[in-house]
Every structure is written in C-alpha cells, then in structure tokens.
Amino acid sequence: MFWVQLAVVLIFIFIGARLGGVGIAYAGGAGVIVLGLLGCTVDPTKDIPWDVLGIIIAVISCVAALQACGGLDLLVKVSEQMLRRKPERITFLAPVVTFFMTVFCGTGHVAFATLPVIAEVAKEQKIRPSRPLSIAVVASQVAIAASPISAAMIAMSSAVEPLGVGYLPLVGISIVICFVGCMVGALVSSHLGCELEDDPVYKERMAAGLVKMRGEGEYDIKPFARRSLAIFGITLLVVMVYAACTSKLDLPLGRNAAIMTFMMAAALIMRFTCKMELGEISNQATFKGGMSAALCILGVAWLGNTFVNSNMDLIKGAGQTVIQGYPWLLAVVLFFASALLYSQGATTATFMPVAAAMGVGGAVMVASFPAVTGLYLLPTYPTTVAAIEMDDTGTTRIGKYVFNHPFILPGVTSVVVAVCLGFLICPLIF
User: Fold this and answer.
1) CA–CA separation, 214 vs 209, rounded Å?
2) C-alpha distances in angstroms, 336 versus 45, 288, 378?
3) How many whole angstroms separate alpha carbon 143 and alpha carbon 376?
4) What is the pLDDT of residues 382-403, one digit of tens each?
5) What is the model's pTM?
6) Which one-letter DSSP state was computed for residue 415?
7) Is the CB of residue 163 less than 8 Å from the CB of residue 154?
8) CA 23 vs CA 299, 312, 317, 403, 415: distances in Å
C-alpha cells in the first residue's frame, strides 16, 4: 500500500505542475481525498503546516504594506542604480540584489520587481538575458534558507534548537554558505548558452520586431517610502533579537507567534505613520503572488505531510540506517522533496523533524538546509515563469524535455556548493 500511496502523491503533484499556478494547490487537496480512501490518516491539525502558512501570510502582508507605501519601489530603484553602475557585471550583480532583497523581506516574491530591470540591463549590454535572470531567480529561492524571517528558517530553528544549534549561528552560517553557493552558480551561469547576437531565436524575434528596449525605469517614489523602509528594517532587527532570546528567556510570545504579530504590527504602524490606505495592500503584486504561494503550500504540503505522517514508522525504519551511514543523502532527499512540495518552508517543516527523530546531528541538518531550495527544478514556480515571460529575447526558454531549462545548472551548482561548504564548516562549529 505504501507504494500505491506514493504513486498517488506523485501523480497529483504531476497534475498540479501541469496545471501551474494555484492548480498545484487544488491537485494537492484532491490527492488528500484519494490518500484518505487508501487508508492514510487525514488530520489537518497535524498535516497542514499552520505555522509556516501563518508566517508566510504575515510577512507577505507586511511586505505588501511596504510596497503600498513605496518602500519596495525605493529598494528597486536603488537596485537598478547598483546594476547600472557596473552593467557589464550584471550576471554577478543580479543574484546579489535578489539574494539580499529576499533575505531582507523573507520572501522570494520581491524578485518580481527586479526581473524586468535585470532583463533590460542585460539587453543593453548585449549579454544573453538568460544568464543573469536564471541565477537571479535561483538566488531569490536559495536566499529563503538564509532569511531570518522566512518560514523555512523558523521551522529549521525549531527543529535544531534541541540539538544545541542556536538561532543566530544558524542564520549566520546559512547566509554565508548560501551566498557563496549563489556566487559560484553565477560563475557557471555566465558561461551558459551562446552569445546573445548568435542566438537564432533572438535573431528571429529581432527581425519580427518583438524585442523592445525600454531604457532606464522611472520610479514615482512616494513621500513616506524611506520611513516605511526604516520601519520594516527595525522590525526585522527586533524579530531577530527576540527570536534569539526565546531559547534563553521566558517570553510571553513564542518565536513563531512573535514573527507573525511583529510583522502585522509593523504594517499597522506604516498605516498610521505613512498615510497608507489599507485597501491598497491587497492590490499589490507581492500580496497576490504571496497569497497564491500560500494556497499552493496548503494543498501540496497537506498532500505530502498526509503521506509522510501516515507512513512515519516505515520511513524512519527504512531511512535511519541509510541516513546515518550516508548523511549527505539527507540533502538529496530535501532537494527533490522541495521540488515536489513546492515550498522551502513546507519541506523544512515536514522533513527536518523526521531527520532529528532518526538521530541525525545538528551539524548535518544545518549543512543540508540549503537543499530545501530546489523549487527551480520544475520550471513552474512563479518567479521562474515570470523570468521566462519578461525576457522578450527568447533566450530564457524551456526546452522540449522540460528539464533542459537555464535554471537547472546554476541552481544545482548553487545548492551543491552551499551544502558542501556547510559540511565543511558546520562540524567545526556545532
């Protein structure tokens, strides 16, 4: 029955991936019904990662408030100035921008705003846009494992804290190894594909007049943009300090509750100090994209967790000896699971407690943590699709075999380097 249930999980994930967007959420919900009929215990209180969803919703709503106040536009303007200062290095500067924007905001959806800029600067420099776009998207996804306010980081912290790994060391190590991995991925990306002017698809689109040069973007920065950005930044620092103190002090709010409430409180402060209308929040692109992602996580994580929790004893029994003998296999499992579960947070919340129950040490878990970011494996994630659509040169395209797309090699390289570096560093610290 185990293999039948696993087949059901894979079939419905495949259906969801084919549908794209929120289709993966709907397919996940339908798959839960089938698993229930096949004998799995369906318990939404345990199988749905409510904390992960709560953190995503709270953080996304605060980022959307930041966008409504003009703070995100200010970030994008500063990013464009940075990219245009050294346009010939766009392939290396683009992932730096998307990485730290994601670290700062706790969601990879902020990359949407920078992708058109990256594509435009690349075209102006006659650089193949697929090179900076692919690694920029990968960096925005990998950075989730480095952001102090991401749902994945909080789930990871909860899993490894009993093993002696503190919150701040976890954040610090994750930022270092993930960033180094992305930079090596950028080096790989810079050599992928032929030069722009030699690309046959680009030549055809140029001849048809489909490639447009838009020039430098114009930003209408709102009066309170800097103030909203300062409020968000201070909130981020408060969250980090509070989260670090939860393991040492008896505080009224737990770590997860603190992040959710602090983020919503920050949005409230923006409302009163930045003269922002609350109705504008739900109209922001980050809000729509983030809530769609939350819905997708609800469906696919519920599907995956229902299967895992119903077969926990079998999975632990089969995997314990193997994982303890070959610890690096944990990273492999996390990598492919993240592509199926469609979420770094859901993957972390599902598999890291299982790894801890198998007796995997904190150092191995932290080293393997960057592997939860394999969402680019299937070219269906929103930022991946957006990068493809925003490149009117046609260089950022999916091959007929689905997996032969420009995100694969930079992404795999970034994760492999980050994990390997983690396995070198973490045993020395933990």
Assistant:
1) 14
2) 25, 27, 10
3) 13
4) 788 888 888 888 888 777 666 6
5) 0.87
6) H
7) no
8) 9, 27, 34, 20, 27
